[in-house]
Write a structure and sequence with these properties.
heterodimer; A: 183 residues; 3 helices; B: 211 residues; alpha+beta; 4-stranded antiparallel sheet; 4 helices
Chain lengths: 183, 211
Amino acid sequence: MKQLVVIAVVFLITACSGDEPVQNERVLEIKELGELSTIEYTIGKLIQMDQSESDWYKWGDRKILINTRATVKAGIDLKKIKEEDVRVKGRTIEITLPSPEYTSFSMDPNFTRTEVESVSGFRDGFTQKEKNNFMRQGEEAIKKELANLSILEEAQSSAEDIVREFYRSLGFETVIIKSKLDQ
Amino acid sequence: MKLNRETIRLIKNIGFLLILGIIVSLIIGYFAGDGDDTEKIADTPIRIESVRKIAELSTISYTDEIVVDSVEYFEELDDVSDWLDAIELSQRVLQRNVARRLTLIVKGEIKLGFDLKKNPIRSERKGDTLLVELPEAQIIEINMSPSGTEIYQEQGYWKDSERRILENKARSILIRNCERFNMKQKAKENAERLIKRLLKEEKHVEITYAS
């Protein structure tokens, strides 16, 4: 009986231990790059959520409008240029550039603003977790929409201009640029 | 077809149970808290705010995950504002005296390299040596996004501005951690390798940096 009491006390003490400190486990990655970003799009999106109709059986409204902004960059990965992609004949150079790609996507929290937040009746206010979930959906929606824009084509043409200028500044008279897109 | 009494009773019972089920689920739904992960945002169009031609050569990236935390505790027990405030008292007991807490895990990426639009590459030929002058390596961009941000724990009400302070703190820690690894020097070394590969036909390439 005495042993049981001791076990019960130990169990209670361990069960009531305080908050565990947040672990700062770092995931670190250092990566060698060769990205030449040539075009930058700034894209805005209004994130809209209205639960008045979906939760008709609950008393009160719950609406939110978040204005957010994303920065998308595109260009070419110079690391993908292989030896056989560069051919030099005297003052003429022929280079085949890799296909353009998105080089970065960022949604700076400093450009995210809640424009309208309306909660009434017995409804709960919006938590930061929910807002982050809405913004994640907004991020996904922007990424999906990128396919309808001509970012990659513009990045390709801009990259060709930069590479041409680079080789001309090195003294090449003729710079022939080919793209993997054309092949 | 004539239904016997047993069948009618069975149908009545099933109907009653269905109605009861609907009522119970409505009550549960009514009183259950708001905010689940299945809420979908409306389909709104994007707007292009600006398009800019740039020339940024990124030669190294640093990715890190930062934990930022903000905690507020209740005052000492002597300062309990109202002994009849059940919410405050229960929070003091159940939440270990924590009044509010917000913890974020932010995954961010820093890219370092050269802004060739502001500081173009200069070159000069001296005999059979090609002199290439690169600008100083710098932080080109810091990428953070909602998909890389996790609200690890949230207790109490937090304003957007308070969350933003935490996100900016994570950003500062990210930059500080990155600087510890001498990344600018690594960015330069990678750039040199890249330039030499693009100029593979040149016998002697000498790379210097603008002061």
